[in-house]
Structures are given as C-alpha cells and as structure tokens.
C-alpha cells in the first residue's frame, strides 16, 4: 500500500458515533486528514479523543452508520490489525510501548520479529539495519543500548521511528501516524527534538494526527486543527493561521477561560513545615520553611534534583536531613511513606499510572485507599459507605463520568488525575507535596485541579509544588525556588514572580550576565519545521 500523495486524503471519517450504555461518547464525528500534513486534535479530557483513537486502532467498534477510509479506500469496522498494517496506519501512545529491557535495535524491529518477516534472527544484521535507519533520521543512538538507559526524549523519538520505518520487503513509509500526546512527559527543552522528528516524518509523505493538550505546541507544529467537545467535532480542520490560544481555549471549554480567577490564599500564620539540611544525590543542602496556606514552587531544568526533593520529603527517595511538621520531627534518612502519612504529609506523584492509582481498580477503591481504617468494621470493609463517599468525591472534584464503580483505566487522563487528587486531599493534609500535578491534562481539568490545590492551601495545608510549567508556578505560588547544579540559584516572589522570569532563571541558572542577554519572549512557543 503506497503513501497518499500530498494533498490526498490519508484519513476520512464520516458520521462516526460511539455509545456506552446511556452515554454518547462521540456523535456524528467527521474528520479529514490530508497527506503530508500535521493535523492536531485537541479537546478536554472526556471530550472523546481517546475513544476516537481507539476506534481508529481497532480497539473499539463504532456505532452502525459510520464510515472510515484510509488512503481513500473504505475499511470495515471494527478495524482489523491486518488492515492497519496494509494501509500503514501507525500509533504512538503516551506511554510509547517500548520494551525497556530490550535494545534499541530489538525494539525497532519488534513487529517484524513478532510477525516473522525476519525469519532468521541475526543480532548483527538487526543492529546494522537499525544503525542505517537511525542515521537516516538523524538519531544518534547506539543500536545495542538497552532502552531503559535512554532519556525520555530519546525513547519518544525511537517510538516514532519504529512506527514509520518500513515493516518489510516492498513496504513503504507510514501513510498515517497517530501521535497520542507523545510530549506529555517531556520537559520543554526536549520537546523541540520531537518536533524535528515530526518534521522529518511529514517531509517523507506521511500524514500525522497529533493529539496534545499544549496549545502553544499545537499552533506551532500543526497545519490544521480539529476540536472535540463533549463528543462533537466543534472545529474541523481549521488552518492554524486563523487561530490563537484564546480561540482554542474557547472552543475546547465552550467559553473563555481565565487563570486570573485563581486567588492565592493569604498567608497569616508562622511556618509549620521546616526542612533542615536536606541532602540528596543531586542537592548538597536545602533549608526551607512553609506556612499554612502558602504555596511554594520548586523548579529547574531536567536533572537539577527537584524530583529527589519531593520524593525524599515523603520517604520515597535517597534523602538525608530533617523535616518538622507541626512540631513533629522526622529523620529523612529513615522516613517511610507510612510514617509520613501519619505526620499529615500527602504526596501526589507525577507518574499517575505507575505510582498514583491502580488503574484496574474502581474509583471507589482508589479514592478510599488512603483512609481504609475508617471503613473497617469487625474485620471487613464497609463497601457501601466507601462507595457513597467515592460518589460524593467524584461530584466534588468533577470526575466524569461520576461513577464510583468504573475502573480508573476507563477514565481520561484528566479525570484519573482528579481521582488521584481526591485520594490525598480527603485526608486534609498539613503538608501537600505535588509533582507535576497537571501534566498531560486539558485546560478545563487543569483549572479544576489548580483550584483544588489552592482550596487545600486555604484550609491550612502548606504546599510544595514541583513543576516544569512556569505559567502554573506564577499563577499558584507565593514564591518559587529555582534549582540549578545542586543549589538554589534564585528565589522569586512578588513582582518578580512571572512565568517569563521563572523560565529565564531556569535557562540561565540564575546568572545575571546571561539574564541580561535574554529577551522576554513567550514561554514554550518554539516554532518547529513542518
């Protein structure tokens, strides 16, 4: 199957609907993607993006009456794996699907090995072919390197390359590549490498359906944009030249949104959280005080040690020093999560799927696990009371759909993150530690999560927010500490606490010489080649 010519249709979807019981997830969706273009698909969590992609991937069937064409040719629904291979339709999901213990070469040719198109496994031949493909796309990777040793951006680019290289003799480049939030977990400085990779892919004739929550990224990378809202395609294939971030936000949520509505709590009390002599593998020393109602940000470039601080203060890392919460002294070297929880500490990790929730369990179990002793009676759990409380939490935190019986795997990323926040905030923590709390969620869910963070602070929690998002830090924090090369290089507060100033401090390491040469440009609007 050849690649669609530039301007030809790589994908055509007409009147596609999907119903789950009483819920209509998609309603008469139309979508056309032309050959060689980058077509962005955006929408809030629960808007139907994931359902649409699952139908295109054959994971789910559509309701009767829908039609789908790949490369101009109609296909039957549900889509079969053989049809996707025939039409060279490929998917790279947020978690990439790489096998960490295999090498770069083995991951690159995994499909061919599984399908038997490489009948004789010759590791030397695998590596030579991998080296040629890596060189063609400008990826400086060792084919023999185990994937678990790669950086996050190297893994993302490897997953994209695996999707677009020919699968066997007579095969061609992919006709359509679906990228489902491939940059969600990447720091801003690494995203440009993925943008460059996307540019190379489209230059070879492949069309890209690009799903992202980062609106600046969407406008800089894409040719056209479609917007899903509540299962309906409210914008279909609009040229990016006609759109602004404000326009996209209005289409996504149905009305204009403003972060200005967020108000930080007024700090009226003396600090009740004291960190003294904190030491981690990347950070030789840190002292920190946080008061009830205060939100303190911690940020820096990748590898600066921010994650080590957050985990060390919850007993999950290699930290030394002492932590006092409401006069209770904790030795960080021996601290464990159970003791941290008993001291009133809560920790929301960045990796939601692996560390934050159990995706196979229902919302009820996930939201109750931090308070299980309250539901024990005579050696059994009061399941009815747990379910009732979970239903109230789902309504409070606007989890959609608000069913406590659904497994978390059935929720969108933003709604799963709300469950994770509810799980910890129901404990009314005195010290709340957050790692990238809105990473990979849409603008609507982000606003709700940020409001819940400020509500927790208003109720007396001291908050430590670790984030790579300068805008979020500027909106929520009373002050921000910038780390670089193992030390605090800048403390920003008051009028100096702006997203531009935070980004500049991270990039310059607090150097006033470098800062004076840095222009005040908007953050995260790097233009990528198309």
From TrEMBL:
Name this protein carries in UniProt: Monosaccharide ABC transporter ATP-binding protein, CUT2 family
A GO MF label: ATP binding
Cross-referenced InterPro entries: AAA+_ATPase (IPR003593), ABC_carbohydrate_import_ATPase (IPR050107), ABC_transporter-like_ATP-bd (IPR003439), ABC_transporter-like_CS (IPR017871), P-loop_NTPase (IPR027417)
Keywords from the named record: ATP-binding, Nucleotide-binding, Repeat, Transport
Domain ABC transporter span(s) in chain numbering: 11-255, 267-510
């Amino acid at each position: 199957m050849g690649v669609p010519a530039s301007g030809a249709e790589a994908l055509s979807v007409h009147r596609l609907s999907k119903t789950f019981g009483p819920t209509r997830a998609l309603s008469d969706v139309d979508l056309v993607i032309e050959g060689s273009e980058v077509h962005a698909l955006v929408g809030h969590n629960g808007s139907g993006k994931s359902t649409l992609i699952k139908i295109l991937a054959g994971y789910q069937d559509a309701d009767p009456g829908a039609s789908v064409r790949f490369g101009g040719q109609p296909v039957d629904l549900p889509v079969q794996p053989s049809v996707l291979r025939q039409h060279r339709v490929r998917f790279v999901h947020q978690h990439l699907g790489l096998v960490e213990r295999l090498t770069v070469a083995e991951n690159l040719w995994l499909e061919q090995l599984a399908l038997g198109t490489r009948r004789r496994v010759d590791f030397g031949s695998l590596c030579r072919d991998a080296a040629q493909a890596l060189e063609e796309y400008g990826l400086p990777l060792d084919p023999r390197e185990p994937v678990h040793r790669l950086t996050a951006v190297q893994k993302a680019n490897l997953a994209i390359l695996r999707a677009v290289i020919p699968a066997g003799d007579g095969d061609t480049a992919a006709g359509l590549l679906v990228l489902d939030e491939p940059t969600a977990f990447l720091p801003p400085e690494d995203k440009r490498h993925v943008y460059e990779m996307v540019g190379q892919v489209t230059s070879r004739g492949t069309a890209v359906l690009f799903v992202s929550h980062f609106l600046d990224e969407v406008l800089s990378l894409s040719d056209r944009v479609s917007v899903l809202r509540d299962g309906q395609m409210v914008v279909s294939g609009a040229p990016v030249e006609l759109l602004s971030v404000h326009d996209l936000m209005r289409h996504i949520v149905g009305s204009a949104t403003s972060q200005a509505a967020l108000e930080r709590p007024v700090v009226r009390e003396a600090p009740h959280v004291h960190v003294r002599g904190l030491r981690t593998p990347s950070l030789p020393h840190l002292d920190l005080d946080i008061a009830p109602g205060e939100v303190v940000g911690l940020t820096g470039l990748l590898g600066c040690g921010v994650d080590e601080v957050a985990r060390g203060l919850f007993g999950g890392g290699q930290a030394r020093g002492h932590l006092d919460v409401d006069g209770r002294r904790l030795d960080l070297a021996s601290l464990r999560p159970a003791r941290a929880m008993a001291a009133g500490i809560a920790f929301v990790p960045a990796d939601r799927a692996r560390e934050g929730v159990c995706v196979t369990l229902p919302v009820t179990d996930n939201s109750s696990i931090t308070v299980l002793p309250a539901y024990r009676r005579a050696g059994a759990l009061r399941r009815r009371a747990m379910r009732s409380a979970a239903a109230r939490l789902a309504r409070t935190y606007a989890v959609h759909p608000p069913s406590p019986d659904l497994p978390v795997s059935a929720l969108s990323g933003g709604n799963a993150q709300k469950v994770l926040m509810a799980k910890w905030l129901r404990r009314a923590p005195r010290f709340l530690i957050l790692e990238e709390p809105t990473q990979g969620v849409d603008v609507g869910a982000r606003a709700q999560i940020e409001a819940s963070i400020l509500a927790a602070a208003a109720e007396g929690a001291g908050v430590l927010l670790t984030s790579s998002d300068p805008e979020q830090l500027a909106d929520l924090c009373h002050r921000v500490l910038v780390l670089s090369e193992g030390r605090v290089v800048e403390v920003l507060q008051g009028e100096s606490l702006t997203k531009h100033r935070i980004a500049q401090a991270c990039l310059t390491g607090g150097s006033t010489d470098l800062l004076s040469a840095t222009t005040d440009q908007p953050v995260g609007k790097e233009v990528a080649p198309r």
